[in-house]
Write a structure and sequence with these properties.
Blueprint lengths: L1 E6 L24 E12 L2 E15 L2 E15 L5 E17 L2 E14 L2 E16 L2 E15 L4 E18 L2 E6 L1
Parallel strand pairs: 1-2, 1-10
Antiparallel strand pairs: 2-3, 3-4, 4-5, 5-6, 6-7, 7-8, 8-9, 9-10
């Protein structure tokens, strides 16, 4: 397996800095890839941090399956001046369909628990269209996540992002290191 590490730093963005997953580059059929990524962003009244780890296996030529987990931390100033701090750790499953160098992927995940008159519910959705050739890849996508704390003074917050970007993966021995913008 190859190891892919992607470092992304985005400034001036009010949504989480990255979508889910490894992007449009797929391993060879019957091969897998393990990877991770980290990113952060800051905007007016909101700061976010996101880290993720994932593994992708190419099941057949047109189909790959990815399993991962995304950690997102959000700090936001509410309209009434309160500071809201949320942390989410959500696992996800992301099937990817490939037609030649073009890929389409959608990831969904959710988590909820409660008891004693309160609880927490959260979820995320991510969609991406990509194009990859060799070590280069380009993509467009959309990401949305939301949380609701159910209590006497409940809190709900959500964020969304539309994105376009590119990535390059350089060989480092048997591993790869990637950079995405």
């Amino acid at each position: 397996m190859r190891l892919a590490l992607v470092l992304v730093v985005v400034a001036g963005c009010a949504a989480p800095p990255m979508g889910l997953g490894m992007g449009p580059r797929l391993p060879s059929p019957s091969h897998g890839v393990v990877g991770g990524a980290v990113g952060m962003s800051a905007g007016a009244g909101r700061q976010t941090f996101q880290a993720q780890a994932q593994a992708r296996y190419r099941v057949a030529r047109p189909f790959a399956m990815e399993l991962g987990a995304a950690y997102t931390q959000l700090a936001e100033r509410a309209d009434d001046g309160r500071e809201i701090h949320l942390i989410g750790v959500l696992p996800y499953l992301r099937p990817t369909l490939a037609i030649g160098p073009v890929t389409a992927a959608v990831a969904l995940s959710g988590l909820g628990f409660g008891g004693g008159g309160g609880g927490l519910i959260g979820g995320l959705i991510d969609g991406q269209l990509g194009y990859a050739r060799g070590r280069w890849a380009a993509y467009v996508g959309a990401y949305r996540h939301g949380y609701e704390l159910v209590a006497e003074q409940g809190i709900d917050t959500s964020s969304r992002q539309f994105r376009a970007g590119g990535a390059y993966a350089a060989r480092m021995g048997r591993s790869e290191v990637g950079v995405a913008l």
